[in-house]
Specification:
7-stranded mixed beta sheet; GMP Synthetase, Chain A, domain 3; mitochondrion; tRNA_Gua_MeTrfase_euk; EC 2.1.1.228; 15 helices; single chain
Length: about 450
């Protein structure tokens, strides 16, 4: 049913729930219980938020409230459900019901309150666009909607029982620690949350670390390509969305983040998600990304490669494994690849003997007219000696108008079948990306 709300609600700054109350007239019929499950009946029921459309009437009868937009006369019902014509003839009538604030959805309430020009402007977040992180609802409201921020927050608290805190982002993400300043609009000021992703439970202080639930699909996609005994280096690990499920899977994990708070919560999350019967091998660090690459990642990779060549036991244990380097810092990650470029230019003959393939998943943003060409051009300046057939480009998501996030997959020292380059499921809807995949596979 399309509810019409009073025009007096427009521009409301303080939430007055009583102003949403109205009385409407709706059609009804009384029918035996056995007919309630009829499919034709479900199509014409009165559907309102938190509203009971089937009521007890007599011991063997139920009163069914119907949608007044669809049912004007009893003949409208008889056409839909001739099987119960007898009961329709006997009982069809109209009844007045009271609709309150409880019977409206978030979208209906916000639309009734905000000025029409804001509603029509699709670039303005009017309350429907938010992320849920544990008990926190996180908004990124545009300036035009800020006068209504507190009333939007209160509606969210009222309508989402699991939400205890509503916050609004104030500034862009800090480029070093990747957290951002926000204001608490309503609810409990507690920002320590618990949430579930990739079969793991994560706990962290949302005010001090970076967490984006919109990346959950990407986290799952990477975890799907991992296998037990793979060796995973996460350069910008955050609180562990990649490495915690990787560790649970049985990977050997080396995880780093420059933010001390991320280091703290990543340690907690790795410990709490360990299998009960056997603990996994993991190592965590609180270093700058370049330092972690130079002093931990690359030396350890060299050590693993040498051990496999020289140690038969290690060879049997790890010969089917792969090394995965994760670099999820889209604003800067590409620039860190200069460390790898420098490393690849030395001891080339020795590296050619290596057995374990190395897969680098480096995330970046692009605003270029041709997104892939833009990324390829920048990458070529940093990794000039990497062949095009060693690189795959995959669209991840749109983060803003004219700004997309991509994953650059760089494949090194892979002596196995080229078809194994991509074992992940691709959910790409951009022709340019699909064509790039097909071109790379054909090579």
């Amino acid at each position: 049913m399309q509810l019409t709300l009073p025009l007096s609600l427009k521009g409301m700054i303080e939430l007055d729930r009583n102003q949403f109350t109205q009385i409407i007239s709706v059609p009804y019929i009384n029918i035996p219980v056995k007919y309630i499950q009829l499919k034709q009946l479900k199509d014409i029921l009165l559907i309102l938020h938190s509203f009971k459309n089937v009521r007890d009437f007599e011991p063997r009868l139920k009163q069914i409230l119907l949608d007044p937009d669809m049912i004007k006369t009893k003949n409208d019902i008889i056409k839909c459900i001739p099987l119960i014509e007898e009961y329709i003839e006997q009982s069809f009538d109209f009844i007045q019901i009271t609709i309150t604030y409880e019977n409206y959805t978030i979208e209906q309430i916000i639309k009734a309150i905000l000025p029409d020009d804001l509603i029509k402007d699709k670039s303005v977040n009017t309350g429907s666009g938010y992320s849920l992180i544990g008990h926190i609802a996180h908004f990124n409201l545009r300036d035009e909607a800020l006068p209504y921020k507190h009333i939007i927050a209160q509606v969210i608290l009222d309508k989402l029982p699991n939400v205890k805190t509503v916050v609004n982002k104030l500034h862009e993400i800090d480029s070093v620690y990747r957290n951002f300043e926000f204001e608490i609009l309503a609810g409990n000021p507690n920002t320590i949350v618990r949430c579930r992703e990739c079969k793991a439970i994560f706990q962290f202080d949302f005010a001090k670390v970076y967490w984006n639930p919109r990346l959950s699909t990407e986290h799952e996609r990477i975890v799907e390509i991992l296998r037990p005994n793979d060796i995973v280096f996460d350069i910008f690990a955050g609180v562990g969305p990649f490495v915690v499920p990787a560790s649970m899977l049985g990977c050997i994990v080396y995880a780093n983040d420059i933010n001390p708070e991320c280091f703290k919560w990543m340690n907690i999350n790795l410990k709490k998600n360990q299998p009960k019967k056997s603990s996994r091998e993991y190592y965590i660090f609180n270093l700058d990304g370049r330092e972690f690459l130079r002093t931990i990642t690359l030396p350890y990779i060299e050590n693993y490669q040498k051990q496999i060549i020289e140690d038969k036991e290690k060879f049997q244990y790890l010969s089917n494994s792969k090394i995965v380097i994760l670099m999820n810092l889209p604003g800067l990650a590409l620039t860190f690849l200069d460390v790898i470029s420098e490393w690849l230019s030395i001891n080339i003959e020795e590296k050619e003997q290596w057995i374990l393939p190395i897969h680098i998943y480096c995330y970046t943003f692009s605003r270029g007219e041709d997104r892939i060409e833009d990324i390829r051009t920048r990458l070529k300046l940093i990794l000039p000696n990497i062949n095009n057939d060693q690189i795959l480009y995959r669209f991840v998501r749109q983060v803003a108008p004219n700004k997309d996030m991509f994953c650059v997959h760089i494949n090194l020292f892979n002596k196995k079948n080229k078809d194994e380059l991509l074992t992940m499921k691709t959910i790409d809807n951009k022709d340019t990306v699909v064509k790039q995949f097909q071109q790379n596979f054909s090579k």
